Every structure is written in C-alpha cells, then in structure tokens.
Amino acid sequence: EPEVTQTPSHQVTQMGQEVILRCVPISNHLYFYWYRQILGQKVEFLVSFYNNEISEKSEIFDDQFSVERPDGSNFTLKIRSTKLEDSAMYFCASRDRANYGYTFGSGTRLTVV
Amino acid sequence: AQSVTQLGSHVSVSEGALVLLRCNYSSSVPPYLFWYVQYPNQGLQLLLKYTTGATLVKGINGFEAEFKKSETSFHLTKPSAHMSDAAEYFCAVTADFGNEKLTFGTGTRLTIIP
Question: Which of A7, A42, A43 is most worth mutating to test chain B (most B CB atoms within 10 A of its CB)?
C-alpha cells in the first residue's frame, strides 16, 4: 500500500536554529498538507499546498514557516528560527483528486531546546 | 467553517464490551467525515470515512460509524472491545472543495479494562 514517508523521525534542535522537515507524498497525489500535534493536544492544520502554491494556511503558519515542493517528489516544511513552542509532532499528508483518503505520514517529532 | 466536537476526552470500556466514541460536527455544506486512530508514538491511521452513499460505514479492525444528518453525528462503534483497541481516536471533517483541509476534533483516549 502506498505510503507517505517523513524524515527524520526525530529531530532535536536549538532554539533559533532553522529546521527542514521532509516528506515524500504518494506519487499520484495532488494535494499536500502539513499538520502539527503538540504533545497531548489535538491535530492542528498548518498549511495546504496545491499546484505548486499554498492554498490555505492557518494562523500558526506565520512568517517563520515556509513550504516547498522542490523537485516534484519531496514536500518540505521549513521553520526559519525555531522557538520552544514549536516542539511538536509534525505530520505530512497527501490526497489524490478523487478519493478523499487523506494519507498521513508517521510524523517527525521536533524538540526545540 | 467546519468543526468537530468529540464528547469525552477519555473513555474506558471492559474487554468484550461495546465501544462507543461520540463525534458531532458542524458544517454549512455536506460534510465528509473521518475517523483516525493513533497508537502511542505513531502516526494517524484511517479507520473509516464517509463521503457519499450508504450512511453506515464499515472500517478496519471491526469498527463502524453511522452518519446521521439530523443529529449532525458520526459516532464510532465496535461491538466487542479488544485490548489492542487502546489508542487515541480522532474524528475529522472536510468538505468537497478540492483541496479542502481536514479539521480534527480534540480526540478521545480509549482505555480497555481487562
């Protein structure tokens, strides 16, 4: 069964450093998403991406965040200057046009120290 | 705007008993509804989804859910709980708007009592 792959599974970074979280969506999917889940809390939408541009972003997705699909297969989330409150599990998801089966990756646990 | 309310942040049932996890939604357009399960330190796995057609939806691991428009509900049930069902369960909603995002509820932690 096709999978969404996320790397790394864990990342520890110092406050103020830049991090890039990587995702390889399912190859024939057209819509891409990033979500985050702070420990013990709900899954929150960050951003959606379609046709090489952001479709929608939440209030959380401020100027410190950016997304890219640099080569037609990878989908990255960059946090420019990490803060302690960015510590969370970050999930990538993708979906095809017809089937509303959003497929999630296994997540990247980001710890900012 | 769409939203989901999950009643009961924690639910405990005995092994072999009925599992009932409640989800109510709010949507100004016909909703598409989902249940996801999250095991400890793992990602989100789709249990089942309702888009159109039959309102009783069967999913994996013996779970099912029924879309009730009049009650704006999409409760998740399983006739007989198993120890392996212990996990966090999330209800989510979206709409048929192309790249519309999923909006999640706050989750229900299911504990199975031996």
Answer: A43
Structure tokens belonging to residue B78: 């399983």
Is-cis flag, bond preceding A25, omega within 30?
no
Contact B101 A45 (CB under 8 A): yes
Cα–Cα distance for residue pair B71/B69, rounded to 1 Å: 5
Handedness of CA B30, B91, A6, A78 (dihedral sign): positive
Interface of A with B (CB under 8 A): 30-31, 33, 35, 41-45, 48, 50, 55-56, 91, 93, 95, 100-107
CB B31 within 8 A of CB B25: yes
pLDDT band of residue B101 (cuts 50, 70, 90) is confident
Q: Does residue B70 sit in helix, strand or coil?
A: helix
pLDDT of residue A59 exceeding 90, the answer is: yes
Which pLDDT tens digit goes with each residue over A5-34? 999 999 999 999 999 999 999 988 989 999
